[in-house]
Amino acid sequence: MEFSSSDGQLSYFNAINWGLLKNSDTLSSAEYASLERAEDFDGGGQSISLDFCTLLLKLALICPLDVGVQRYVFHKVCSILELTTPDGSISVAAEQRAIFFTEGGMGSHITANQAYLRAIISTDLTIKSLAAHCYASLLTKFGGGGLSGSGSSTSHMDDNGDNIKKIVEWMIEELSSANVNSKLEYLMPAITTALRSATIRNLFATEGGVSKLVAAMTMIGASGNAQRLYELAFCMWSISLNDKLDINNFLTSPAIKIVSEVIAAAPSRKVVRLSVALLCNLARSEDSTALTEMFSSGLQKSLENMIQSSALKQANDTELEADARELFDILMTNFRELSTYDRWATEVKTGALRWGIVHTEKFWRENARFVEQEEYSMLKRLIDLLDSDNTEVLCIALYDIGEFTRFYAGGRGITSSLGGKDRAMAMIDHSNAEIARYALQCVSKIMVTNWAFAS
């Protein structure tokens, strides 16, 4: 959400009943005069002092229920930190002014934390957004770590560690709310700012933040609001920059699937650029599960279309082109290794079936003949997995049984003799619609006598 610096603070200032505050001794005449003189501050040459910033936060603390005061104070803080500029740029002067919001202006421990922490849970979305944005900016600056790096402990982190934990808890809670989609406009300026800190990113990812971002992106949809998709992609991309990237943070949710869908939908070039950069970072780990998910999401086809088209060259987007080519090369280099029969057999032995390249028509067309090894022991194990209480495992097992039957000569008789047909038929009326659908497909494949005529 964008706020006009000069117009916004003037309207917020005028909306306050200053006379009431002065008459109640909440504010002295001298303090009011100081606030009034600062109303023409535009982030330029005016002098902002430690005393003035202290006065602002004092006002927030003593008037916690005054919506007008809260809006005015936090909009003013955002203006001083230059967080209201349309392009998001921050001057050196604004960076220097940030120390006025730390104890004694020493640039370490952030002062009046309670004012921010109380405001970020306000029911007023404007107050929530403004307070969270400026607080996230201060914690990023004084919390240790930048966009790159591990976010190792520093004296600033020691000073502000508890409050960093609180802002991360707030981020997780807000992203978990039922109506998060309607609030993203207000939440994302703070969240994207906070995740510029490696320290905050690491904690956010550890606390399950990636799955929250993925859920929000899923609700928007691959062809949804481009700005919101960009912000969510930026958050995930920033997490992928961590020195000690834990790839599991992206594998415990359908992150790769939804980001691949966004790339295919291409809602805007900047969204695609960040999405490709994100998956490129993940692919560099050469984690087999991550690469498998990229294949099963059809990512290689989207990248191939992108590379072969003239759009990239016409756009002269060298970063996107470089990342797209690198990502495509990584996928192609690992394709044969990822699609081996041994990889499929390992999954079946462990019972940890997961949708991917070894559960596709292409895989079965090339590998069905290997199932005859050891008297069809792997097919027997696959049929045994129909006792699983995991929906995904059941669906994949049914799919694989059907594909084996389809591509292996004599597969119908072998599958039936081992009990696969009867087991699949018993699941056609399963209470889970997805399992019932895969069971019906499996039985249909077993019943077809000649695939040459069926295809």
Give the CA-CA distance, first to last residue. 53 Å
Largest sheet: none
Q: Which blocks of ≥5 consecutive residues have pLDDT under 50?
A: 1-6, 149-157, 451-455
Average pLDDT across residues?
87
| Rg for CA atoms | 28 Å
Order of helices and strands: HHHHHHHHHHHHHHHHHHHHHHHHHHHH
User: What does the oligomeric state look like here?
Assistant: single chain
- Helical stretch count? 28
Question: What is the number of strand segments?
Answer: 0
- Secondary structure: helix percent: 55-70%
Structural class: mainly alpha
Strand content: under 5%
The geometry reads as elongated
- Tally of domains: 3
Please describe the topology of this protein.
Layout (H helix, E strand, L loop, with lengths): L4 H10 L3 H6 L5 H9 L12 H13 L4 H14 L11 H6 L15 H7 L5 H18 L12 H22 L3 H15 L3 H9 L2 H12 L5 H14 L8 H4 L3 H11 L3 H15 L4 H9 L2 H10 L2 H5 L2 H21 L2 H10 L10 H7 L5 H12 L6 H17 L3 H7 L2 H6 L7 H15 L3 H4 L1
Helix pairs in contact: 1-5, 4-5, 5-8, 7-8, 8-9, 8-10, 9-10, 9-11, 9-12, 10-13, 12-13, 13-16, 15-16, 16-20, 17-20, 18-20, 24-25, 24-27
